[in-house]
Amino acid sequence: MMQKKGLYAMQPMQDFPLSKRSAIQYVLCDIDDTLTVHGRLPAAAYAAMERLEQAGIRVIPITGRPAGWCDHMARMWPIAGLVGENGAFYFRYDATQRRMVRRYWKTDDERRQDRVRLDRIRQSILEAIPGCRVSADQPYREADLAIDFCEDVAALPMTEVEKIVRIFEHAGARAKISSIHVNGWFGDYDKLAMTRLFFRDQFDRDLAVVRDNVVFAGDSPNDEPMFAYFTHAVGVANVRDFAGLMQHPPAWVTEREGGFGFAEMVDILLDR
Asked: Which of the four pLDDT bands, split at 50, 70 and 90, describes residue 8?
């Protein structure tokens, strides 16, 4: 459990130093409950992404959402690419060549083998945890298993959510809690590992070298590797709902929740 000092370590986003704002070249962000509010993408959040793009700042969502959704977003959103399924892949749409660039952590054969193992875990979870459900977006996933504990089902107690995590881990899988799902997969990757690869491949940049030029925004425990790594890690206000589940909270926190908090953050970053 996180120590109390972690709660107080989060500083108001409005105090983000003016001297550091002009150095920001990349904004990385979670999607669910970071860009969205109650499952919807508000115009304010989308407009904030457009404003960043117009200011020459690259926007890269880092999400647990599935490959099928990520293909759509890479094509149609004002973003430079995105990492999906908690680090299983990145997609970037090359508008000049009119083609989708896709890079997976694992091979096609490895993902097929993993699917057989994940199907066994799925059955174990559904039998052991009444009230949960396989996520509605599971048919569009290529690498992981998403168990819904509050998106399209009545919210489960966190004690039950943590039991889902333990079932994944007992079977040798990794598992992370988002604001709506528990995502489980086999492999030594996470959001941060694939983000490093994306920066190396697509920008020819070592993420460690440009870390001070990056802001990451998130809201939940599956963002914790990013919160821990980035100096300029921002939590939208609802990150406080998960404070007790994180050893590494973000450095900064917005006043508003979800996509409205993201827009608040962008207002501050662009006020130079």
From this structure: low
Q: How far apart are CA 108 and CA 183, in angstroms?
A: 19
Q: How many CA atoms lie within 13 A of 166 on its CB side?
A: 8
Q: Which residue has the tokens 């489980």?
A: 184
Residues 6+ apart with CB under 8 A from 173: 117, 118, 121, 184, 185, 186
Q: In 3-state terms, what secondary structure has residue 10?
A: coil
- Residue 93 and residue 73 in contact, taking contact as beta carbons nearer than 8 Å: no
With a CB cutoff of 8 Å and minimum separation 6, the contacts of 248 are 6, 224, 227, 228
**Contact indicator for 217, 52 with CB cutoff of 8 Å:** no
User: Smallest Cα–Cα separation from 35: which of 208, 219, 227?
Assistant: 219
Give 188-225 pLDDT, tens digit per residue.
Answer: 999 999 999 999 999 999 999 999 999 999 999 889 99
Domains of the chain, earliest start first:
4-105+189-270 (3.40.50.1000), 108-185 (3.90.1070.10)
